[in-house]
Structures are given as structure tokens and as C-alpha cells.
Amino acid sequence: MKQLKTEIIAVGTELLLGQIANTNAQWLSQQLASVGINVYHHLVVGDNLQRVETVFRQAHTRSDVVIVTGGLGPTDDDLTREAFQAMSSMDIEEHSPSMEKITAFFEKRGSTMTPNNRKQARVFRGATVLNNKTGMAPGMIVSFEGRTWVFLPGVPREMKNLASESVFPYLQGLLGEKQIIKSMVLKFVGIGESQLEHELYDLIQKQDNPTIAPLAQDSGVVIRLTARHSSEIEADKLLDVTKQKVEERLSSYMLGINEQTIEQQIMELLQSTGKNVSAAESLTGGMFADKLVSIPGASDTFKGSIVCYATNVKRDVLGVSQEVMKKNGTVSQACAEQMAEKVSNLLDSSYGISFTGVAGPRVVENQQPGTVFVSIYDRENNRHETREYHLLGDRDTVRHRATLKGLEFLYLYIKSTVE
């Protein structure tokens, strides 16, 4: 299959300053993948003529197709045309239909058109001009030295319309045949990225179609499988075959695919076993409960959470003994275990899970920031399981990661009792 090495360049200082997000590049990459076109580079460059020209020259040396968004407006800092002309020496001319459209726009509004608006109708001689139905500046497709350059407005609505109606069909014509790129994300818990990569080393080394890419994320480790084929059905078959090979080796760590979350899997496990869970949250302050109640039907399996941040709430509401807290501290395995057991009994749940620890920035009870205890109480078996974690990050990060660790711990515990 023919390949088109494609690059996306966004022009605009506002993107570099973080004033707006570069959603154009994200959307373009997603859409191009769906028609079998690989994007190899994303670049953002500010409104500076020399820097834009430098980026254009670099792209021209390595990509078959370069898609540029932004810099086609009427103001002095809209420099996309000027930068490409400096590189290519191509002539620029006024496109009469676009100029007529711009003039008509101002006449209809009854306002005076400033001279700089004529700039928006300027196009490269010989370019395929793309009619902008939702804005003023037209898009352009330009062939130069064996490369295809696509120029699109930076306004997302205008860019998407031009790309969908004109650019994608044009690029598919260059391919000669339709290609489909499909991806599948496999999610894992209880295994690190390095161990996962070790278990799949030979598959990764031999990868071709589909490709296998391990990725580490806050919520766990994932593998992205990406297949390419002219047929969507065949691309799906390629993904399924590789998924089965991965599952054969890592089934005990497999969580789900694509959009499936660990919260959903916990709820499904609880529903299938007719059990439920409640939480006692000190460190996490309700974050764990928030994760579970975001799942439709959570009331069937989640009894509730007691946020027991203060010591007296642990004692007076949960019923954690003063002796335990005095002897071991509130940031301890003993306190975590009592919290889990007490909330299970109070809320009449099959499992109780508790969170206590030090989010930071100060040391508490001689425990360093990031020290976290998560405990599970299995009421049916009168059994405690507790884990101690030492998490890195600022206060919010520690709380967030503690919540994720608790979800992972609970999922693996319930799963082990079912198997």
C-alpha cells in the first residue's frame, strides 16, 4: 500500500502561549487515520516570518503532505502565505471569487471593508482553491517539488468543513486506494510497563501489522494496537488476532479494552457476585466515591462513603478506637483496617475500603508526605487486606494516585475471590 508521510503545522503565537489548545491537529490526526494516512509530526510555530519559513523548510524535507492551519487572516501577523512564498518563490495573486465573497460580506453588513481584508483572497498561482463556506479566507492545495501542501484557516469550524469536503477526498485520491487505520487499546492493572514489555518482547520485536505500543498512564498501563488494511473488517480481524495473543500471556492482568474503565469493571464484578462496597475516606476526601458514583447504576453496588478527615470523625462517627489511634496513629495500618471494618459494618456492605495517609506538604505523625494506607475488609470472611504505598507528587497528585491505587487494589481483590 502506498504511504503518505504527513505532517501538521499549526501557526499562531496564541497556541504557544497556551491561550487556546491545538485541537485542530488532534482532530486532523484522528480523521486522517480513519482514511489510512499516517501523521508523523505535529508542530506549532509562532507568528514570526523567519521561524515559520524555517519550520516549512524542515517539513518539506521529510514529509509527503504538509497540512498548515492558521495564518491566513487579514492582519500583519498572519504570515503563512509570506513564509511559503519565501521558501517556494511561487507567485501570489488575488482570487477573484474569494474577493467578491469578501466584498459582498461587508456590503451585506453595511460596514466598510478595511484594505487589509483583501489579503484573505490572496492565493498561490496554480493552487487548487478551496471555497470556504463558513468563513472568508479560502483554503489551498499546492503541489511544490513533489510535495503536497494544504493551507487551511485556523478557525476550527472553517478548517473542519474544508478538510472534510475537499482535503480528505483529495488525499485519498493520492493514495490510489482507500486505507483504513484502526486502533484498539488494551488496559492492564497490577503490572508495570517494564514487566509488560518484557512479557511481550518477542511480539513487539516482530510487530508489523498491527503495531504494538506499550504506554504508561496515570490510570495504569495500556497497549495500543494499530492495524492497517483496505478493508475495515480485515483490519478488525488483525486487531482481534493480536489481542488474543496478548491475552494468552497477560490474562490475569487484563482489565478491559478501549473506553472500559476500572470503575465499570468493579461494578460489574460486584453485580455478578451480588455484593456491594462502602468506603471510609480520610486522605482522599470523597474522590473514591466520586469515581464509583459516576457509573450508571452505582446505587446497586455502592452503599456510600464516610469522609472522616478529622480524628474525632474517625472516632465518633466511624467508631475507630481512641486506643488504636493513640498507639499507632491515624496514618497507620491498624487505623486503616479499623476504618475499613467499621464502615462495612455501619453501612452493611460486603466490602469496606479505607484510605488514610499524608497528602503533604508537611510530615504528619512522623510519616512523610506520600505515605498512604489502603485497607479492604471482607466481611463475609472476616478478613483484612492492607497495602502501604509511597506516592510521589504534590498534594492533589498524591490524593488522585491514592484513589487509583484503591480502585486497582479493590478490583484485583474482588477478582481473586471470584476466580
How would you characterize this protein structure?
It comes from Oceanobacillus kapialis. This is Putative competence-damage inducible protein. This protein starts with 5 loop residues before the first strand and ends with a helix. Helix 10 runs parallel beside helix 15. The protein contains 15 helices and 17 strands. Strand 10 and strand 11 form a beta hairpin. It has 419 residues and is α/β, with parallel strands linked by helices.
Question: Can you summarize this structure?
Answer:
This protein is α/β, with parallel strands linked by helices and 419 residues long.
Task: Note the topology.
Blueprint: E1 6-11, H1 13-16, H2 23-34, E2 39-45, H3 49-62, E3 65-69, H4 80-88, E4 92-94, H5 96-109, E5 122-124, E6 128-130, E7 139-144, E8 147-152, H6 156-175, E9 180-188, H7 193-199, H8 201-205, E10 211-217, E11 220-229, H9 232-250, E12 254-257, H10 262-273, E13 277-281, H11 287-293, E14 302-307, H12 311-318, H13 322-328, H14 333-346, E15 351-357, E16 371-378, E17 383-390, H15 395-418
